[in-house]
Each structure stands twice: as structure tokens, then as C-alpha cells.
Amino acid sequence: MTILNSLLFSFLLCTYSQVDDPRSKKIIDDMTARFKSYSSVSLDFSISIENLQNGSETNQAGKVWVKSDKYKLEVPDYVIYFDGTKIYQYMPLPINEVIITKPDADEDDEDFQLLNPQTYFNLSSKNFKSNFVRESTHSSREVYEIDLYPIHLNTTKYSRIRIMVDRSTLQLVYIKAIMKNGIHYTLNFKPYSILQPALRDSFFVFNRNEHPNVEVIDLTF
To answer: pTM higher than 0.90 for the full model?
Structure first.
């Protein structure tokens, strides 16, 4: 499982799965609206992956750039580009390979949505119910804590998401998740960098000219 797949968040079944209180919903709606208002942003993050089945834990840092429906995600082992149509997964030397795919045409394709960092900055009320937990402090930032529960619990890969939202900036600060298969994910985000002017669309496309002799595996046909 790749680090990007670690953006596949999930949590334990909870009796509050049908709760959607007005306060948490407003915070999420405001957070999503604020994020959509940015021309483009970059975020540094750290991720911890804990596997309860074998007792292993890994930690890694990365960076993600987002513009509209496009993103680029970079971690030490590989880089993912999504230009709004195609996904490019580039693995640098010594592998020097890029795999090109397309998300499923179905807008509810969960595999694609869970791989897409934008999923967690544009949380949809059609997919989640929410419950306000409390106000607290995390990494010296005052935050709202909110639990999210998937509406279609029987068919999803996850069951609960805990998020923390900065109270003053409405930026996503923290996510903790537990998949149904017993893998726990914890992500921490540093404050966003709002980019002006906006990034060019070409920034989100893998440039073969910059990677000589790269092996291209195109699965979009």
C-alpha cells in the first residue's frame, strides 16, 4: 500500500453514524467554502501509519499542491499528479517509471475519491454525517474537533474520521482514521501557503521531457 493510499481514511463503527448536528455541519461547510476560494495552495504534512495486524508503524513527511480539481502529491518514494483527467504516478530512479491511469467515470468511485487529497478539503454532506466533539488545542492551534461517519457504512472501506479544524483560519489541521482492516492513519497539516499567482495547469501534468528515459506505462486506452 502506497503512502497516497494512506489518504484512504476509515474509522470504527459508531452508534452516532446518523448524527448530523448543525454546528459541525456549518464548520465543515465553512471550511470547504474557504478552501474552494483559494486560487491554489500548498501544504506540508506528516503521516503516521499504524498496522494493528502486525504491530508495525511507519512515519513519513510530504507535500501537496492543490488547484481546483487538480493536485500534485510528493513523498520521498514517488510523486502523484492529477490534471483533472489523468493520474500520473511517477517513481523516480532507480525505478524511473510513470504509470498513467484515469479515475472511474462513476462520480461515486470511492477508490478514486479516497486517493484524492481534495476529498478531505471538500467534505460532502452526501457522503458523511457529522458530530461536533469539542473545542481543544492541537500543536498550539485552537481547533474544533469533529467526527464524520459514512452514510453508506456497509459498502464503504472506512467507518469514522476524526478531523480538527483551526478555529480562526478554518484550515484542516489534523485527521485520524482507522480502516476496517485495522490500519490506523494520523495526518498533521502545517498552515496552508496560499499561492499567488495561481499555479499553472501544466504543474499538475507529468513532464516526460524532464525525466529522460522514463518508462511510460499508459493504462488509459
So the answer is: no
